[in-house]
Design a protein that fits this description.
This protein is an alpha+beta fold. It has four helices and nine strands. It is about 30% helix and about 35% strand. Strands 1-2-3-5-6 form a five-stranded mixed β-sheet. The longest helix has 20 residues.
Length: about 170
């Protein structure tokens, strides 16, 4: 039996993969890493080179809320935040993906995550995601909130735009 967590991770990875494939300039390799919610994404253009002749390495960390309706809550234990910090050091960029049950997916880059949860990690901290019907997502965390909303269409567009910007 395939559990819901694996199904939703597969959905997020599939959407990203299809969007990268639609660009026809890029190929990607994605593999899970030591943390069950973490993935290493390597992207290259068809000639295999980026600025400074390097592959583009992106860390992906996925969190899921199975609550049917918002607001959705995501708990980040200290160990999760330390792992995300490590991913950010090892990659060119790190994104945190928040899956809001069947409502939609929000992607945050590392800097946005740190606006919500600062660099001082408590034992457990949380992010709250809410959205009114046909509106964008609003995010708040233990240490702050985003001053802007995030449209439901931001995933995987935010990651694709980052890749395009770095080529």
């Amino acid at each position: 039996m395939i559990d819901i967590e694996k199904q939703l991770h597969g959905l997020a990875i599939s959407l990203l993969s299809l969007s990268i494939g639609d660009e026809k300039k890029y190929t990607m390799q994605i593999k899970s890493n030591t943390e069950r919610s973490g993935y290493d994404l390597t992207v290259k253009n068809e000639s295999g080179f980026f600025k400074k002749n390097k592959l583009l390495k992106i860390g992906i960390y996925i969190k899921i809320s199975q609550k049917r309706r918002g607001p959705w809550a995501f708990t980040f234990k200290k160990i999760h935040q330390e792992y995300i910090d490590k991913m950010n050091q090892e990659n060119h960029k790190t994104f945190v993906i928040l899956i809001n049950s069947n409502d939609g997916i929000v992607s945050l880059n590392y800097e946005e995550l740190r606006k919500l949860l600062d660099y001082k990690h408590e034992d457990a901290e949380g992010i709250r995601v809410s959205r009114k019907l046909k509106q964008s997502y609003r995010l708040s965390g233990r240490d702050g909130k985003l001053k802007y909303t995030i449209p439901p269409s931001n995933y995987p567009k935010k990651i694709i735009n980052y890749i395009k910007d770095k080529i």
